[in-house]
Each structure stands twice: as structure tokens, then as C-alpha cells.
Write a structure and sequence with these properties.
The protein is 35% helix and 18% strand. The chain is an alpha+beta fold. The chain has 2 domains: 355 residues, 3-Layer(aba) Sandwich (Aminopeptidase); 64 residues, no CATH class. The structure holds zinc ion.
Length: 455
Amino acid sequence: MPKTVLTRRRFLQGSGAVGAALSLPFTLAGRPVAAPGEGDGPRTGFEEREGASWTTHDEELGFLADVASARPDRLRLTELARTSTGRPLQLAALGAPVAGALAGETPTTLFVCSQHGNEPAGREAGLKLVRDLAFTEDPALRRLLDEQTVLVVPAANPDGRAANTRGNADRVDINRDHLNLATTEARAIARLIRDWAPSLILDLHEYGPSAPVLYDDDLLYLWPRNLNVDQAVHDNAKSFCLEYLRPDAHAQGYSADEYGLYKVGPNVGPAHDLGVDVQVAQVAGNGDEGICRNAVGLRHALGILVESAVTQNLTNGPGDIGTAGNQTRRVASQEVVTASALRYMLEQGEAVKLVTDSARGRKTREGLRGDVPVYFDGADNEAPTVVADPPPSGYRLTSTQAAELAGTLDLHAIERRPSGPGEVTVSMAQPAEPVIPLLLDARGKRHSTAATPVD
Ligand SMILES: [Zn+2]
């Protein structure tokens, strides 16, 4: 297990640009696409109140409808689902598909905002992104919209946002449900991935203070760590974080570092409180296939988790939480992420689409040959202990099991065929190969059923 030293840095006070210009259109060099009030179009409730309070659900509906009616050539709104309390879960699709391209044909980026309802900054950045792209005259962004697709789910958990809770109205954490798909909200995201095949997915979160202090960065990022993710998908996700997101954040005066689950070493305590470095190690949990970044990685998308810091006052408690300045900073840091993602897709979009599209064939061939183990635990920074090597060639389900799981199998695009009386077989030789054992094998930590492995 790799050891990491967490260095307690001096907090970056304020969020002014440090002036390290990138050789890119300034609107894309890790900066907001357009500053609030700078461009045309409606304003969010958050903007109207200058950051004093978050955009309400009703304001979100009105705002998106206004943008869509003003720019029908650029933006199409779709209701993906209704939550258990009846709130619409909306998708904003911008760019090529509105002009007639079919879903999955163009390089596609998806922003999943605030699936933890009490982490609202990503949603504000997502709403502003929709408006700014719909109204932009920036030549690079116009080109992006001509050639690519940008999808935004501004409120991936509308009930949780309205109630300011992490879970949905049934108190389920959606971000552990992206394999099993028990919630309406996770099913909506899975359907998007199946139908639009995004190459890059940004999952926008926030992190709060903890005792002891584990993180002190403005932004944290992480790629899919699950060991069954296609290697090229994994490597490109990691390089987006290290070669785009991190330098773009730094160029704008925000600190950014890798997210993980840290275990604090023996010198935690008074020394830590006085600012002395502590030894930490990354521990298990990073490969969890129920988490969005891993689950979408298993579906061949570059799944990136981002967390913005809820407070900069990490040692002394939540002193600045709730102020307009604090909330504006959090949203501005999330806007660096959305801009960095667009810069990446402008520069790498076609190449990344080749990587994510071709992962389907690579995983199908792996499943056919049966020469790559299945990992039921571990992560790219943690040795696995439960491994099927050689892997099964497929799984046999009873027709009852297959019927109970039909919706989930469909949403993960898992093909199956009748193979005998009362029996259905799922072959590993298909694009969904990495998902199949985690969902169907009793060795999977989050398996939905215990099907019979076929050798
Ligand atoms: Zn979260």
C-alpha cells in the first residue's frame, strides 16, 4: 500500500487569479466561461442575490425554461425522471445534438451536479454553464458546440437539494447506488450513460471540515480506481486530473490535490493541531463500484469526482460557512472545473472519444478470451485479495433472477440469452464485461444477485 505524506499547506486565502496565463482563449483557461452579469441571458437566483443564498428548485425550473426558450438552437431540456416526491430531474443538452446529430456520435461531456443535496456549489456552476454556453459568442466555445455535445444534470438529487440533505427523499445515498440502481436518481444517470455514451463525466461534490483535518485544498479530484476499469480509460481519466484540472486550478489561484480516504498516523493530536505534518496512508474504499466515478469508469467513461471545500476555515470550525463570500468562492472554484473540462474536450475530445468507444471492443475481446482476472476488491493503489483468475466466461441466472433484474440489466446494457428451460445466460464477451461479475457474482461486494459462474 503506497504511503503518502499529507503536508499541511498554508491555506490559500482569497481566490484571486495569480496571473499565470495559459496560452489559450482566456475564457477557457480555467476560468468561468463568462463572469456573472457579463454575458446575456437570465440570471440564477444565486446570482440575483449575489451569492447570499442558493438557487431554489422553482428558480431552477424557471431559469432553465427561460434559457431554453431564448436559445432553442443551442439547448434542449428533457425531463429524465420524477423523484419520489414528484420533482422533475432535468437534463440540459447543448451543442451538436440540438442541431441534429445523434446521441453518441459526437464527443460528449456530462456534468452531474450535486447528487449529494447538501453540496450545492456544483449545481450553481452547472446552471451557469448551461446559460453561458447557450449565449456564448466565444469562437472556441462555438466550435465546441458545433462539434460536440455537452450534457448537464444541474440537480441530480432535487429532493436532497430542496431539503439540504446528502441522500434523496428516501434517505438513500445515490452515490453508492450506481451499480445496483435502486433509486430513481441513479437509474436516470445510468440511462444517460447508456443512451448518450459520454466520454468524460464530471461528478461535482463538496467536502466539509473534519476533525482531525484531512484535507485543506480548495479542490480535490479522483479518477476511477476500480481495477476492472479499462486501462486506457483509467489512464486518460487520471491524466485529465493531473494535466488539465490541477494546473488550471493552480493557474487561477486555487489549490487542488488528489482525493482519497486518509487514515491519520500516530502523531495526530496536539501536534497536528499546531500545524505539524502527519503521516497518512490511503486505505480501502477507493475502488467501490457503487460510486459514480467507478461505475461510469466500468461503463468506459472517464469518471471524475471533484470536491470543492465548503470552508477555508478548516481548523477552527465553520466560521465562514453561509456567507455570500464563502458561497461565491465555492461556486467560482467549481467553475474552474467546468471550464477545465471544456478545455480538455476542445483539445482532446476526438482522441478521448476513440479511447472510450474502443474500450467496448477491448472489454468484449477480454471477455471472449478470458485472460484478464476479475477483481472483486482492491483499487489502483491497493492490492486485491478476492480475484477470479481465470474469470468465468459468463453467468447463469434462473429466469426468476433474470426477470427481477431485467431493468438493471437493461440500464447497464447487459445482453443475455435463454440457454435452457427456466435459465438465462449472460456472456462475459460483451462491452458491459466489467460490470457483469460485480453485479451478478456473490463475491462482488455490492452484488444484486448470486448467479452461477460458468467456466
Ligand atoms: Zn458528495
